[in-house]
Structure formats: C-alpha cells, structure tokens
Amino acid sequence: MSQVFTAANLSFILQGLALTLYISLVSIILSTIFGTLLAIMRNGKNKILKLIAGIYIEFVRNVPNLLWIFIIFLVFQMKSTPAGITAFTVFTSAALAEIIRGGLNGVDHGQTEAGLAHGFSPSQVFLLIVFPQAYRKMLPAIISQFVTVIKDTSLLYSVIAIQELFGKSQILMGKYFQAGQVFALYALITLIYFIINFAISTYSRKLAKKWAQAN
Fold it and tell me: Membrane-crossing residues (predicted)?
C-alpha cells in the first residue's frame, strides 16, 4: 500500500481533483446564467423565444451528455478542457432551466401584481421581487446539480482524454498490477468523490430545510 500512497501519487491525484472542481464550478456558473435566460424565454410571452427555449431544453435533455462531449470536441475542434466545459454547460443549462423555471413559477403571482400596483415596471418586478424569492427556492436544487456535474466529469477522460480526477487514477493504474494496489487506488478515488459530493448534498439539504423553516 505504501507504494501506492506516495507523495508523488497523491499530488498527481490532487491535480486531477483540482481540474475536476474547476471544470465543474465554471460549468455550473455558466449553466446557471444560460439556464436562467432559457427559463425566462420559456416563461415569457414571446412565442418565438418560448419555442426556441422549449426546443433547446427538450432536445438537449434527451440526448446523453456523452454525445454532447463528442459533438463539441469533434465539430468545433476545441481543446479538451474548453470542450469539456462547453459540453457540460450546454447539457446542464437545459437541466437548470427547468429547475429555475420551477422556482420562478413557485413565486405567488400576487407578488407581481403588488409590485405593478406600486408603480414598478415589469422588469423591476422581476429583478427586485420575483427573482430574489425564486432564487431562494431553487438554490438548493442548483447546488445539488453541482454533484451531478462533478460525477459526470469522469466521462471526460475516456472521451477526450482530460486528466481530471478519474483520468489521473486511470493513468496511475498502469503502474500497478497487484489486486490490492488497484483496489487501494479505486478506494481512494471513491472516497474523494464521496466526501466532496456528500458534503455538497448535505449542505444543499440543510439550506433547503433552513429556508423552508424561514418561510
């Protein structure tokens, strides 16, 4: 086991973890932005924008993320890391759009009517009244989606050879052949994924519970 858990190997794995978290964080931030725009378009009164958003959301959500990684990498000839971020943004935006749309629809319509009655414009009502309330409702779900993105980054090594956490572990596997060594490496990677995702999931549940009690 000491041959596996060397300082060099642990540093190598942590480099992969850093890349996993970087790709996941950038993807979830961009996806939240684009997902919000899609949700607004789909909830809006403009039929063309509503149709475009609906087609995008339904089409993207029903095609495996693995295919989006292939398509973006091959068609657009991007470097591996930008291609991975773009693919996850494309896919996750569609998922978050429905989460955000649910949050927007969950705000009592009376809030909008009250804002308009007080002289606010529709855009001011949305930005100052509706969106802040919806944000509180949907943030735990957005955080939970972060877990999905982190887990799915493990697809990137096999598809476009990005050396994220799982990719780094696969490279190390080539150095060891004993069953105990291989098991130790997989156990370590499993533990890392579990600790990170469990911490995020726990925080998401506590946040949702806290805000539910506040309401």
Answer: 12-39, 51-76, 141-162, 183-203
